[in-house]
Amino acid sequence: MEKPKPKSEQAIDTTSQVVQSAIPATSAVDQEFPENRVDKLDKGVLAIMQDRKNHYWFGTNEGAFRYDGKSLIVFTEKDGLRQNQVRQIQEDASGRIWFSTGGYGVSYFDGKKIYSASDNHTSGSGKDWTIGKDDSWFPAGGGAYRYHDQSMTYLPFPEVTANASTSRQAPTQLSAYGVYSLLKDRNGNWWFGTQARGVCRFDGKSFTWFTGSGLKGPAVLALFESRDGTLWFGNNGRGLFRYDGKDLTNVTEEKGLANPEFIRNGRVLPGTLARVLSLNEDSAGNLWIGTADAGVWRYDGESLINYTPADGLPDCAIETIYLDKQGQLWFGTNGDGVYKFNDRRFSKALFN
Q1: Is there a smaller number of Cβ atoms within 10 Å at the N or the C end of the chain?
Q2: Are the C-beta atoms of 224 and 247 separated by less than 8 Å?
Q3: CATH fold label, 7-349
C-alpha cells in the first residue's frame, strides 16, 4: 500500500525544559531500549502528547519518538508500528500509548513492546455503534475503529454500509467518509471529521451530520472543544468553523479571510485562513489555529492575529498544536520539527 501523504498535502480531502545540545548520559529509558536511542527528532511532526509520566511523545513521518526529560528514543515499523507515519497519539485509562498511523493502522505501546492492534480487528455494523466507558476510538477509511474490552472493531458509518459501492471497502481504504480527526466532548459525544462529508456527531444512539456553510467537501482535519463548550472545526480549504450548539458559522468567511482560489484550482494565497490543520487553546482561553500555508493564527473571540516567519516560525505547515501540563504551547511542523511559543515569538525546540 502506498504510504499516504501528510495531511497538509491532501488537497481534498502537542518538558517545559528545552534541550538543544547533546543528549546527556544514559537514562532509564536507554537501559530499556538502548538500540532505539537517537539524537534528533524527525522534521515532520504530526502529533504531540504528554503522558501521565510526563514523557513527551511525537508522532512523525518516520516513527514515534519519546522524550523522558533526558533522552530521545524512536519506535518504528521494526518495533511493531503498523506504519512509520504516526498521525495521532493518545493514552488510555490503563496507561497504554496508542498510535494512529498512515494507511489507517492502529498500534499501541504497553511500556515494553508495540503491538499492531488493527490487524486483528472484527467488522461491525450500525447496530454495533455504542459508546462505552474507557473505550478508545481511532480513524478508519469509512468510519472508526473502537477498542473496548480487549477487542478492536471497525465501525463504518451507516451511510457507508448502505452504499454498495463503499460497503465492501476495508477500513484501510479511504472513502469520502474516511475519518481524519476525532474528539470526545465534555458530554461524552464523539465527533468525527471526514474526508469529504463534513463532521459527524454520535451521541451513543444517533448520528448528526454537519455539512453546511461549506463544511462538506474539503477534508476536516482538526476538531477542538474550547473551555466554554464551543466546538471548532478545521477544514482544509474553507477554513475555521464554529458550532455553539445551535449555529454553524464559517469564521474564515465571516472575517474575510477565505481563499476560493484554493477550492477552484489549488492556488495558495498568503494571509488567508482557508486551510486549517490544527487547533488548540492556550491557558488564557485564546484559540490557536495552525494552517497549511499561512502560519499560525491566534483568535481571542473577536480579533485574529497572524504569526508568520517574521515571528520566528518556519515557512511550512503547522500540523499539530499542543498545550502541555505546564501551560506551554508546542507546534509541530511538517518540515522543521517542533517549535514553542513564548510571549511574542516562536523558537525552535527539542532535538531539532
Answers
A1: N
A2: no
A3: Methylamine Dehydrogenase; Chain H (2.130.10)
